[in-house]
Design brief:
With 137 residues, this protein is mostly helical. The chain has one domain. The chain is 70% helix and 0% strand. The protein has seven helices and no strands. Helix 2 packs antiparallel against helix 5. It starts with 9 loop residues before the first helix and ends with a helix.
Length: 137
């Protein structure tokens, strides 16, 4: 029996979600007033950051098996901010605290400053329905 290969690893998910967050931040910056799409965008950023934070441990398992503890710990420290920002964003979105969201956006954008998303991306609009999903959590 051959081994199974999972094409959707935590690293690929993290890359895809990072690009989607950058796209969402761009789109959120274009919004002029608070409407359903604005809420979806902010909620998606919170959910995507939660998903990235949840995948950190899955990414470092292979390093820890090989006793690369320093590398695993450094990776955890590099991505630890995602869980913290996800919680702040979630609280701000659910409380309609747009001042806090406006304050968090540049900080999140700075963390993803090296991510490049082309104009011809295939991500679509992953934020559609995110506000309802965030309310359900």
């Amino acid at each position: 029996m051959s081994r199974l290969i999972n094409p959707d690893s935590a690293g690929k998910d993290r890359t895809r979600l990072s690009k989607a967050i950058v796209l969402s931040i761009r789109e959120l910056a274009r919004q002029k007033d608070v409407n359903s799409e604005t809420k979806d965008l902010a909620a998606f950023i919170a959910l995507a950051l939660q998903a990235i934070a949840a995948g950190i441990d899955a990414s470092v398992i292979a390093w820890e098996k090989r006793d690369y503890w320093v590398k695993a710990d450094r990776f955890r420290m590099d991505w630890m901010w995602t869980g913290q920002f996800a919680e702040k964003m979630k609280t701000a979105v659910l409380n309609d605290d747009w001042a806090t969201i406006a304050m968090l956006m540049p900080q999140i954008a700075q963390k993803f400053s090296k991510i490049v998303v082309s104009e011809n991306h295939r991500l679509g609009k992953p934020w559609v329905g995110a506000y309802l999903q965030l309310n359900g959590n």
